[in-house]
Amino acid sequence: MKQKSNLVRLGYLSGIIGVIQFIVLTAIAMAIYPGGYSLFGNFFSQLGCTISSNNHLPSMPSRIIFIITCTITAIVNIPFSLALRTNLVDTKAEKILGWAGTFLAISSSPFLFLVSIFAVDVQFGPHMLATRLFFLLFGLAVIVYTPAFFINKRYNKVIAFYGVLVAASAILYMYVLILNAAFQKFTVYFMISWVIVQGVYLWKRKEFPGDTNPKRTL
């Protein structure tokens, strides 16, 4: 059981590290973006362009960093989602929702990778399709996870409700404000904050799946 708990902890840690590296590497990509990068005027996708949208100079360094950080984030999302599911085992409903949420979350990972591979300035159609599918699948994953967190009697309901706000933000961006760079930043940082909140909360929790003391709570 101790080995299983360590693997679960590693899953939470991977999600936390994934968020941190995304924030750091995208900040570096913004800092070296040709012609300057506006946090609220430029999209994340523009970091992956082959040519800067500001001064039309090659932007390969920013593009490479963008591909690297999106790839890492997509990969670490898998163990994080699997670790998250291990908390949803008390009832049949939790198990079903947990597996469904994990399937949706993991399914979003390839599309995040494709978002970085398909440069928006040369492959606009595939890039936008990958973007929509990533936000849709990850947003649905949060939506599915959330009722499972509420069903689980040991789960902090305030943190569970946080997922409702994150999911609403993702759906609002995807269907209404997808062309708004400022709201994109808000949505992306809101989504990754959900990973941090869940990861840190569960990392610090008093009980791991398989613990022999059922009285301890999350």
Offer a few descriptive terms.
218 residues, 0% strand, 6 helices, mainly alpha
Q: What's a quick, concise take on this entry?
A:
The chain has 218 residues and is an all-alpha fold. It is built from six helices and no strands.
* Number of domain units: 1
- Beta percentage is under 5%
| Shape descriptor | elongated
Main sheet summary: none
How many β-strand runs?
A: 0
The helicity comes to 55-70%
The helix-strand sequence is HHHHHH
**How large, in whole angstroms, is the Cα Rg?**
18 Å
Low-confidence spans: 210-218
Measure the end-to-end span. Answer: 18 Å
* Continuous helix count: 6
Mean pLDDT across residues: 88
Class per helix and strand makeup: mainly alpha
Question: How would you sum up this structure, described in words?
Answer:
Helix 3 packs antiparallel against helix 4 and helix 5 runs antiparallel to helix 6. The longest helix has 30 residues. With 218 residues, the protein is an all-alpha fold. The chain has one domain. The protein is elongated and about 55 Å long. Helices cover 70% and strands 0% of the residues.
Secondary-structure blueprint:
Blueprint: H1 2-31, H2 60-85, H3 92-117, H4 124-151, H5 157-175, H6 181-203
Helix pairs in contact: 1-2, 1-6, 2-3, 3-4, 4-5, 5-6
